[in-house]
Amino acid sequence: xxTRPGLRPRTLLAVVILLGLAVTGGLSVxxxxxxxxxxxxxxxxxxxxEALKYAHDLSLAFQQATKTIAxxxxxxxxxxxxxxxxxxxxRLRTPRGFEDFFGGDDFFERFFGPQDRSRxxxxxxxxxxxxxxxxxxxxxxxxxxxxxxDEIQVKLANGREYxxxxxxxxxxxxxxxxxxxxxxxxxxxxxxxxxxxxGQWVLAVGNPFGYDHTVTAGIVxxxxxxxxxxxxxxNFIQTDAAINPGNSGxxxxxxxxxxxxxxxxxxxxxxxxxxxxxxxxxxxxRSVMDSILDSGQVVRGWLGVQMAELTHDGxxxxxxxxxxxxxxxxVMPDSPAEKAGLEKDxxxxxxxxxxxxxxxxxxxxxxxxxxxxxxxxxxxxxGKQRTVRVTLGDLAKAGGHTWESFxxxxxxxxxxxxxxxxxxxxxxxxxxIVSAVQEGSVAARVGLKxxxxxxxxxDTEVRNLDDFRQxxxxxxxxxxxxxxxxxxxxxxDLRVQ
Length: 497
Fold this sequence. Notes:
Blueprint: E1 14-17, H1 34-40, H2 46-69, E2 73-84, H3 99-102, H4 107-112, E3 120-132, E4 138-141, H5 143-146, E5 151-155, E6 161-170, E7 175-180, E8 201-206, E9 214-225, E10 236-239, E11 251-253, E12 259-268, E13 277-281, H6 282-295, E14 301-302, E15 305-309, H7 312-318, E16 326-331, H8 336-340, E17 347-351, E18 354-355, H9 359-367, E19 374-381, E20 384-391, E21 393-394, E22 403-406, E23 411-415, H10 418-424, E24 432-437, H11 442-446, E25 453-457, E26 460-461, H12 465-473, E27 481-487, E28 490-496
Antiparallel strand pairs: 1-12, 2-3, 2-5, 3-4, 4-7, 5-6, 6-7, 8-9, 8-11, 9-10, 10-13, 11-12, 12-13, 14-21, 15-16, 16-17, 17-18, 17-19, 19-20, 22-23, 23-24, 24-25, 25-26, 25-27, 27-28
């Protein structure tokens, strides 16, 4: 098992991506008929037999869902060859007294070659799961299962093995598409992850610890989980179906055998399942997969706003009831939002007919919508509800992803694009902008405010979002906080021990 860079244990509680070490094995489930159940317990009351019948019917549903999804689940073994640093071996030295004759200690190296340049490699093998999505060999899995792999081996449910190639990856959602040279495969059927309900039964299928086609049952524990630090775009389904290392990339399915999630991570104190697993919703996975298959890369929509969470105080001051929605903190120049007439302090409540509860939901909704798509936004402005039509832009052409939340500090920050830099009178490529500060967070206690430009954090100079992300990986609030920022043209050095 490996942990994703940037995930740090918090009092031994860690979010773990589910890439397991390769081992072998298998599991099977015996079938039991209703007559068998009754024959084994002839003295039971009618009520007890009726209860057993319901339990048996549920068991049959589990078996049918397993039969439906099983042919589409594959075992993936990725191999990475890493060069192992070698200890410098002793050089052949010129015998004492003969230095002038042999021309110094490099005589032997000139004639026999360098004595310390042998190279050795070590193979690192990880195991995960995948899901056949097309009959001609296309498979979806997690990016961390195949990232940086030199070789990828895929084993089908029927035991056939193939070497796979990577078609495309998306680190920002931790998804990847690979392909094997095979035909007439049985693809999975995707369900609608937006339609799932907390409490409904689900099955997780995969290869935990290498045990092929293991099936575990549980319920949907929660929806819309984010802030795990596993990916940039997070909207996880939480489940208590047992998920362990090696399940990564395998499906979470409903009782119809339809895929409603891609198993990705767990929260654990032991490294194994503790009843808190996370799956990427199937609608998000399908959007990323389709984009990769269509264009070889992931294309995302762009709205062009900086957002802030809607607080009780903010809602009261705006005359808005509740805190379900997102506040526009800033509209980027020449963005789709500006062209559509969106304004600072607008409260967005719906995106193309779907209710928006927080910044993460709006960000994911925009990202999963293709550029040049015209959508309707429902918003609240100056005491009235309005509807605005917006044609989304291309996020890649806008300079890549522009915002990210960091719950360990309690801030959302944005990339300082050239347009924003000109507007604020600062140099492009110098820092990240604070968009929102969570109430009661570490950032709030330190005194960070929206529109601050963070130039340095800890020992890291912050020039862009990647630098800030690296600083967050090393962040330990128990060791104090040091932030260098620009606020209103003034540079401020904040230190809190």
